[in-house]
């Protein structure tokens, strides 16, 4: 059974930082690409950052230079370091892995106050 559990969200002032974590179980973690998505109220879910099994990364234009995705294959965990946070980064952040279908965590709320 595939499980993804996010943590690390919270309330932060504009310009602050947060580090999200996603603990993954039920798969051979090191073999799979991982991603972070976010969904703001009234908006569609959007890709924030992704990391391949080999460690290559890509980012949404809106977060390039501010967010960093990383993975720890020994701990079956993927992280999202978020710096210089802005109010427009406010959303529920979800961890994702795609096998034969998409699997999602429950999400963690990030709120950035101005």
Characterization of this structure:
The chain has 114 residues and is mainly beta. It has strands spanning 3-7, 10-13, 18-25, 34-39, 46-51, 57-59, 67-72, 77-82, 91-98, 102-104, 108-113. The strands form two sheets. Strands 2, 4, 5, 6, 9, 10 and 11 form a seven-stranded mixed β-sheet that branches. Strands 1-3-8-7 form a four-stranded antiparallel β-sheet, with no helix packed on it. A hairpin with a 6-residue loop joins strand 4 and strand 5 (46-51). The chain is globular and about 40 Å long. The termini are far apart. The model has no long low-confidence stretch (mean pLDDT 97).
Short structural description:
0% of the residues lie in helices and 54% in strands.
Layout of helices and strands, plus pairs?
Elements lengths: L2 E5 L2 E4 L4 E8 L8 E6 L6 E6 L5 E3 L7 E6 L4 E6 L8 E8 L3 E3 L3 E6 L1
Parallel strand pairs: 2-11
Antiparallel strand pairs: 1-3, 3-8, 4-5, 4-9, 5-6, 7-8, 9-10, 9-11
Q: What is the averaged pLDDT score?
A: 97
Q: Please mark out the parts with pLDDT under 50 across 5 or more consecutive residues, or reply none.
A: none
Cα-to-Cα separation, first versus last residue: 40 Å
Strand content: over 45%
What is the string of SSEs from the N terminus onward? EEEEEEEEEEE
**Major sheet summary line:** 7 strands, mixed
Radius of gyration from CA coordinates: 13 Å
Proportion in helices? under 10%
Number of helices: 0
Structural class: mainly beta
Rough shape? globular
Q: Give the total of beta strands.
A: 11
């Amino acid at each position: 059974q595939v499980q993804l559990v996010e943590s690390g969200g919270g309330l932060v002032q504009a310009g602050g930082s947060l580090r999200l974590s996603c603990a993954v179980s039920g798969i051979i973690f090191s073999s799979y690409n991982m991603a972070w998505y976010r969904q703001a109220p009234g908006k569609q879910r959007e890709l924030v950052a992704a990391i391949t099994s080999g460690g290559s990364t890509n980012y949404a234009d809106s977060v390039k230079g501010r967010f960093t995705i990383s993975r720890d294959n020994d701990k079956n965990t993927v992280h999202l370091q978020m710096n210089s946070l802005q109010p427009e980064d406010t959303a529920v952040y979800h961890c994702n892995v795609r096998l034969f279908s998409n699997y999602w965590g429950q999400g963690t709320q990030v709120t950035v106050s101005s």
